[in-house]
What does this fold into?
Amino acid sequence: MRQITLHDTRSGRLQPLQPRDPGRVSMYACGPTVYGRIHVGNARPYVAFSLLKRFLVHEGYEVTFVANVTDVNDKIYDAARAAGVGSEHLAREMTAAYIADTDGLGLGRPDHEPLASETIDEIVELIQALIDRGHAYAAEGDVYFDVRSYPEYGELSHRQVDDMDQGEGDADPARPSLKRDPLDFALWKAQKEGEDTAWDVPWGRGRPGWHIECSAMAEALLGVGFDIHGGGSDLVFPHHENEAAQTAAARGEPLTRLWVHNGMVRLQGEKMAKSVGNIFLLHEALAAHGRDALILYFCGGHYRQPIAYSEERLSEAARSVERIRDAGRRLVAGPSPAELASLRNAFFDALAEDFNTPRALAKVFEWVREANRRAEAGELVGDADLREMLAVFALDALLDAGAAAGGTDAAAQVLLDRREAARAARDFAEADRLRDELATLGWDVRDGAAGPTLVPRG
It folds into this structure.
């Protein structure tokens, strides 16, 4: 196995991956709060950590990947109230939409996708442990974490305690604050008027705070001290800071070995977010650009850095898809030339050093250029190396699509990819429209067990 390093937010430097259990990697990544359809920014951690799992599996590790769903939250209450439906109904609907939308990425599902609403017993037990150890206190149905009882608070986000603001306000604006200190954060919230989801627990009827959910879900499935905790960089504080503090305070050991954070998707310099209003929904992006282009778009930026969302970047990714597909038409099945092995090795070395996908992609296109040169000179070039590299990015089917498409033109193939993305997102009206557009170009779509193919009309 290669030595793999990842940037750890707590230490601020690259750290070697040293699994708790040799040969096995346990990984948790924070998933969405399901109060609306997810956007492209929400999809970035899903893509980054799904692809990281694929690389770790390639390197010989057995990987357990957990990505949660937060289905109990203030935002869900607010959105459900505005829509005139129950919060449970909205959460179920949006969870199903999230699964359908991310299925459209074609990366498979995480090994476990726990729901906060199904982890209440574990949440209650963890809160009680914090109370018993003097790190939390109950106050008229609420329970708060006592930040100053944990001296290491701030070590993940590298902030001074007195400079922090939890940003959650009081438990109920209609009554005076029950916190002992403004820094303290809610572990359990007493039920308020208009909240239709609640549980009876020792401190009164209510529901969990946001941060405690992830600590409980992660521990329930991976134990304490698992290998990698991932999520967006916007979660470092307060969400992940609070996760780290409450688990360490309750259990006496760190929640995870490595904290790994992806950068934000930005539009005109701002983070893509529902609260800002500058979002592109994932299922719409898949229908417009196809999953292959979207995956290449994400891989074109280092996971730790912000990445701009623009038509130019997506068009560039689509052109890269066509370069790979075109290369597939020139290759033959079988071993690749030994002289190209150094590029294959450099690809995997790049991923081993903080999962550097842009550097790895550069090696893919160096390999493609050299393979094209050899093919044009009459050499039969085997596709094994390219197929192995692309498989880590879930793009190896491009070589099959290229061969199957044979004489199809690039424009028709792009439309076919967009149709499949629309079908995966259950946008059947758009899929039918794209099928009709293909018909005007002279192509029928034949759906078979091996997937769709283009057949000349007439």
